[in-house]
């Protein structure tokens, strides 16, 4: 069995499972945020009206809550939703509630690794499609709808059909001007936005062993954009060190067997990779960044669970140091812990000297909800994960998806720029 | 939920690929706390301009008023996992969505809310797109009746049962945990 099959077998109490099997698994962790939380509570309300008594969740210690999409409160209703979440965690005794304005908080997928909320070998589900991100910690991580999350909250279990696994093998390190974001955009361009529908995307090979945990998280984050059920990377020494830095050393790692089966193996040569950009309006609409050097931009956005981890900010700082941005540029670290580290190592000064606005963690602009949305016809280069019509604002705005290096280089020139071409 | 019986209706042809859940219900409506009333926001940015219906959008064509079946191209329901998307389709009146493929989370969310997503081949979808007459969906026999012809479709047996009996997934599944364990042992899909 491969790692995904072994985790699902363990969690369903079986000795072996195969792709296509339906298994009823015990969930280790579940997460809701300020969009899915109120959605789940609406489902609870529907059940209560039918006479069901809901006065507890299956295990409050395995539930955690993030405030990320509509904080800072975008309007009165968003503010009310945060109150709703607070009442929910109080009522059900949920202690892990990362509250805006009270120390550590941030985007849920970022907190999952920054706070080591999920550990290797676990089954983790969340009320958000990018829950796949956390699979880079060697866990089975998948997004669910509100009704499914409500079910897990009450019962601690959920059905899964064991997915087939597509294995993406990276041979050798990526060049300095290429980031994990470029690789995952290249892969999505190759297999399409439904290329991994109901499948697991597993990443391995020497290039992945060389890659930081943060970079791996960029890969798994965007497996959602290929329709994947989950994304995963096997645990290794780099992951152990990453978790140890966060005070966690005890967990049960799961590794695939040597004769693990994969539906298909794709190979990529690290040295051949180039900066890639996805054009509007689909993440599969990819070209090399240099082909877009005439595209004039209105805004650069470096933020989100995909592109605002510490190393993403470090990559942006490498470009922006001593430069001035030519277009509106915003950098929003994905969690307060990252914001603080960026301050401690001097990145915020580099950004501000370059004329960039640095803002608090939020999903706001990435999903076009608030905190800097796009006007009609505006064009943005962004380190985020989606560029559907209207994703970041007006339905007639446009988003190009890119790595933090490309986004920062483009912020300096005002046009889409390969970092190698920045003078 | 209401048991799903036969549905007969004209089908609304939404000729778009990769319709993501943000097109189905734009983000500005996600903040609403209640679960009902999302139909008015369905395809909002495509349907309305400054609050006025856009004439060229298919849902605003009077011939598709009261349609219960939506046709769409590949990868319908991709993007955000928001269940509001299914709530909006259901509230608007769509009980069946037919496409060549669906995004996984959206597909599962449909069954939780009594909406039937049907996957068909490119040829079948093309045929449905080109018909102007009513089509009939019979879940029991897993067939689509169009122009006097019957086309069969596949659905996983547990989803079929949930829809046919109008089972409320959570409440009922909690009551039937043992049966699930037995079912799980005996079924592979």
> Biggest β-sheet of chain A: count, sense, barrel?
5 strands, parallel
- Please name the CATH architecture of chain B: Alpha-Beta Barrel
Strand order of the largest sheet of chain A: 4-3-2-5-6
Q: In DSSP terms, counting alpha (H) and pi (I) runs of 4 or more, how many helices of chain A?
A: 14
Helix content of chain A: 25-40%
The general outline of chain A is globular
Mean pLDDT of chain A: 97
Note the run of SSEs of chain B as H and E: EEHHEEEHEHEHEEEHHH
Helix content of chain B: 25-40%
Provide an overview of this structure.
In chain A, 31% of the residues lie in helices and 18% in strands. Chain A is α/β, with parallel strands linked by helices and 423 residues long. Chain A folds into two domains: 3-268, Aconitase, domain 3 (2-Layer Sandwich), CATH 3.30.499; 276-421, Aconitase, domain 3 (2-Layer Sandwich). Chain A starts with a helix and ends in a 10-residue tail after the last helix. In chain A, 61% of the residues are buried. Chain B has 189 residues and is of the alpha/beta class. Chain B has a single domain, classed as Aconitase, domain 4 (Alpha-Beta Barrel). Chain B is built from eight helices and ten strands. Helices cover 32% and strands 19% of the residues of chain B. Chain B is globular. At the A-B interface, strand 1, helix 2, helix 3 and helix 5 of A face helix 4, helix 7 and helix 8 of B.
Topology diagram in text:
The complex is a heterodimer of chains A (423) and B (189).
Chain A lengths: L2 H9 L10 E5 L2 E4 L3 H14 L13 E4 L9 H17 L3 E3 L9 H7 L8 E4 L13 E4 L2 H10 L1 E5 L2 E8 L8 H12 L7 E6 L1 H5 L2 H9 L8 E4 L3 H9 L18 E6 L6 E3 L7 E3 L10 E4 L1 H4 L2 H11 L7 E4 L4 H9 L2 H7 L3 E2 L20 E4 L15 E4 L2 H10 L10
Chain B lengths: L6 E3 L1 E4 L6 H4 L19 H4 E2 L2 E2 L15 E4 L11 H9 L3 E4 L4 H8 L4 E4 L2 H9 L4 E4 L4 E4 L2 E4 L4 H9 L3 H7 L1 H10 L3
Parallel strand pairs in B: 2-5, 5-6, 6-7
Antiparallel strand pairs in B: 1-8, 3-4, 8-9, 9-10
């Amino acid at each position: 069995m491969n790692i995904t099959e072994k985790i699902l077998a363990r969690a369903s109490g079986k000795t072996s499972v195969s792709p296509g099997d339906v298994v009823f698994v015990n969930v280790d962790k579940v997460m809701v945020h300020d969009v899915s939380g109120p959605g789940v509570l609406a489902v609870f309300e529907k059940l209560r009206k039918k006479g069901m008594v809901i006065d507890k969740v299956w295990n409050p210690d395995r539930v955690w809550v993030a405030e990320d999409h509509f904080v800072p409160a975008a309007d009165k209703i968003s503010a009310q939703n945060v109150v709703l979440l607070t009442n929910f965690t109080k009522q059900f005794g949920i202690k892990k509630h990362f509250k805006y304005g009270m120390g550590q908080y941030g985007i849920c997928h970022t907190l999952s690794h920054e706070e080591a909320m999920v550990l290797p070998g676990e089954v983790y589900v969340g009320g958000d499609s990018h829950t796949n991100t956390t699979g880079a910690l060697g866990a089975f991580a998948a997004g669910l709808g509100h009704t499914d999350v409500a079910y897990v909250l009450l019962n601690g279990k959920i059905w899964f059909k064991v997915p087939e696994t597509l294995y993406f093998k990276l041979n050798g390190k990526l060049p300095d001007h290429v980031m994990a974001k470029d690789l995952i955009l290249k892969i999505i361009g190759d297999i399409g936005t439904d290329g991994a529908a109901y499948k697991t995307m597993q990443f391995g090979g020497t290039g992945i062993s060389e890659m930081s945990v943060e970079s791996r998280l960029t890969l798994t984050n965007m497996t959602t954009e290929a329709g994947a059920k989950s994304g995963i990377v096997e645990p290794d020494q780099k992951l152990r060190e990453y978790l140890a830095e966060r005070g966690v050393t005890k967990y049960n790692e799961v590794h695939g067997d040597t004769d693990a089966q994969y539906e298909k193996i794709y190979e990529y040569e690290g040295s051949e990779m180039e900066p890639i950009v996805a054009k509007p309006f689909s993440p599969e609409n990819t070209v090399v960044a240099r082909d877009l050097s005439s595209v004039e931009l209105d805004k650069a956005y470096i933020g989100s669970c995909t592109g605002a981890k510490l190393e993403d900010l470090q990559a942006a700082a490498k470009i922006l140091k001593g430069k001035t941005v030519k277009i509106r540029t915003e950098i929003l670290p994905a969690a307060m812990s990252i914001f603080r580290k960026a301050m401690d190592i001097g990145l915020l000064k580099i950004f501000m000297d370059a004329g960039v606005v640095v803002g608090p963690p939020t999903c706001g602009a990435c999903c076009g909800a608030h905190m800097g949305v796009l006007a009609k016809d505006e064009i943005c280069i962004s380190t985020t994960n989606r560029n559907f019509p209207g994703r970041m604002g007006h339905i007639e705005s446009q988003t190009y998806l890119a790595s933090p290096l490309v986004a920062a280089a483009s912020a300096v020139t005002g046009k889409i720029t390969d970092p190698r071409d920045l003078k | 939920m209401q048991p799903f019986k036969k549905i007969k209706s004209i089908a609304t042809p939404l000729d778009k690929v990769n319709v993501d859940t943000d097109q189905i219900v734009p983000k500005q409506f996600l903040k609403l706390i209640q679960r009902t009333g999302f139909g008015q926001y369905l395809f909002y940015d495509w349907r309305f301009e400054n609050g006025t219906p856009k004439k060229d959008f298919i849902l605003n064509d009077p011939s598709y008023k009261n349609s219960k079946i939506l046709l769409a191209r590949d990868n319908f329901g991709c993007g955000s996992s928001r269940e509001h998307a299914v709530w909006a389709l259901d509230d608007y009146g769509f009980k069946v969505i037919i496409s060549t493929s669906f995004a996984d989370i959206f597909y599962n969310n449909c069954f939780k809310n009594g909406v039937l997503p049907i996957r068909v081949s490119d040829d079948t979808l093309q045929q449905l797109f080109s018909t102007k007459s009513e089509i009939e969906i019979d879940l029991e026999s897993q067939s689509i009746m169009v122009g006097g012809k019957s086309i069969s479709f596949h659905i996983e047996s547990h989803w079929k049962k949930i829809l046919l009996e109008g089972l409320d997934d959570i409440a009922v599944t909690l009551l039937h945990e043992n049966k699930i364990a037995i079912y799980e042992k005996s079924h592979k899909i």
